[in-house]
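Q: Convert this sequence to structure tokens.
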Amino acid sequence: MITSAEILNAKILIVDDKEPNVLLLAGILRVAGYTSVSSTTDPDEVCELHRKNRYALILLDLEMPRTTGFEVMECLKELETDGYLPVIVITAHPDKKARALEAGAKDFISKPFDQAEFRVRVHNIVEVRLLHLRAKKHSEVLEETLRKLKSSGARELALTKETQKGLLPRFLPQLGNYKIHAFNNPTRHLGGNFYDILQRSSGECIGVLADVSGKGMSAALLGAMVLGALRTEFRSGTELRQIPDRLDDLLHEKAPDLRFVTLFLFTLGRDGAGQFISVGNNPGHLYRSATKQIEQLVPDVHVPGGASDFTSSQSRAFHLDKGDILVVSSDGFAEAENPQKDMFGEERLREIIQRDAHSGSHAIEKSFLKAIQDFTQGTPQTDDITFVIVEKSH
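A:
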């Protein structure tokens, strides 16, 4: 998780040939608490400044004399060899927005702009940029370390777990109406499983459990990119049903090998009213305390990243009453293997929920961890084991 302090201390460069515009943008950012804001009215200086300072965000005017914003972005691409340009373009011409995004910009702001929207867009893009850099750094460190420890399987696994742990939230939100538990146990091969849960300004809780296809550094980096994109959508208030399509667009652009992502998205209000979309993920399980029965939240068929011909996903309603428990797990849970190559299976998972749900979500979490440990007996797994548990406490 990226802290507010990290975001506010991130380096930001304002590029506009008109000094009043620079002063206006810089003033808004400083009032918002950003501490490292610099500027230039000369677009020809941007690449050299970025080479020296490696900004987390560049606010770039498109219409400038001599050198346009598009030309500046072409220069920046030579510095950002991974193709990620930390750029928000500023333009008064709506017809140039699409071209700017195609050129590599991460977002745009229209002139004249709304100050509140401007602050939100800056905050979101800076956060995604810092997540991207953190994931890249983790991967570089891990690659270098693994080269030195080729024969050390135990150390490799420990490093893999530490790297993947860095992509997960350090703390789960403390919500008055809900108890939340989550767990991720990566395999020896770095993967792309992750979860995230946060509380929106409306008080609504929004969460995800996701799995990027494949293994290794590329899957982990893609997972970090998807996580950053999801956090942007979460904080921007994007409707649940729109999120899979936006991930489709991202993956088609950034993952030409047609990697895909399975995910379970959900929202929950203070009153227990919720929506979910299960996209290629295992069904969610909903324990009803009143009837002692388990309902399945059945997945949709749309898989982001081109693995399906379907282009939209419909959110579906559900409701948690007091004592009800939602359990979402990755396919690595049910497909965990013991030394005899038997799989743990969905039936064992449901039996644990049925047996222990009356004791609450923490009891389910403890039983899950013990059951997996006893079943696998230390057998190396081929997929991450991840789960999220949410109980409505009152």
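DSSP finds twelve helices and 15 strands in the chain.
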